Amino acid sequence: MNTSLILQFLKDVAANNNRPWFQQHRNDYLEAKKEFERGVAEAITRIVKFDPSVAHITVADTVYRFYRDTRFSPDKSPYKRHFGAYIAAHGKKSLHGGYYLHIEPGQCMLACGNYYLPTNILTACRNEIMGNEEEWLRCVESPDFIRLFGKPGQYKEEEPQGFGLSLLKTCPAGFPRDYAYLEYLRMKDFCCWHRVDDNFFEGEAWLDTMADVFSVAKPMMDFVNAVIDDYE
After folding, report:
1. Which stretches of the chain drop beneath a pLDDT of 70?
2. How far is 191 from 162, CA to CA, in rounded Å?
3. Can you tell me the distance from the alpha carbon of 8 to that of 154, in angstroms, rounded to the nearest whole number?
4. Alpha helices of the chain — where are they, by DSSP H?
5. Neighbours of 141 (CB within 10 A)
6. Residue 90: CB partners within 8 Å, gap ≥ 6?
7. Is the dihedral of CA 86, 156, 76, 197 positive or negative?
């Protein structure tokens, strides 16, 4: 993937985030978009090797719109400052978790898992964690998982890595306050992320590193997806 081309366009659009400039540089956008989508296609092919559930997914199923929805945002700039793709077996709008690629100057990352979940599903996930504690701990307390993502609440969203975008301040209602692994019950999502350098996606070697990172996160995601799939 030619990330130099993509990053230069993103830097330019961040400095000129308005429709007249964008219309004059639409060809630059289309070239950057095409290059990003080429990388996404390569990523899908590589992920299928360890997760066949996404074999039917196309690039069009994964890539997010570049145009921002400004209706409820104080920021009225019309365009995003990043390219993102969510490779999920049930589609990018489903609760079923998947793999996320993000290219943004200074903020490139790989992420995996399940974003904000409804309360009833969160409750079911918490019950599943308590009911299958040993299996859950094998997923999230392996040396590789902790090295790549850390533990819940250890890192914030803007930091290089993390597990869980937000946590409840206290024990969720109806669960034991003295539970030994309470930090996992306090999680409001099961997303883990690992930031990478801007040149990470350049060439082809990144595909193997991406596969290694996602393979470490996959058991955690599969655990949660097994609960979510009973509700979708």
Report:
1. none
2. 8
3. 33
4. 3-15, 19-24, 26-48, 59-62, 119-131, 133-140, 143-149, 182-185, 206-228
5. 12
6. 96, 98, 232
7. negative
Spatial separation of the C-alpha atoms in residues 10 and 198, rounded to whole Å = 12
Instruction: Tell me how far apart the alpha carbons of residues 17 and 25 are, in angstroms, rounded to a whole number.
Output: 11
The answer to whether the CB of 183 falls within 8 A of the CB of 152 is yes
224 CB-near residues (< 8 Å, 6+ apart): 97, 113, 114, 125, 190
pLDDT in tens, 181-199: 999 999 999 999 999 999 9
Closest by CA position to 101, among listed 113, 109, 93: 109
The answer to whether the pTM exceeds 0.70 is: yes
Q: In what order do the strands lie in the sheet with 98-103?
A: 83-87, 98-103, 109-114, 190-195, 161-163
Predicted pLDDT of residue 232: 74
DSSP H stretches of helix in 16-112 = 19-24, 26-48, 59-62
- Whether residue 163 contacts residue 197, with contact meaning beta carbons closer than 8 Å, is answered with no
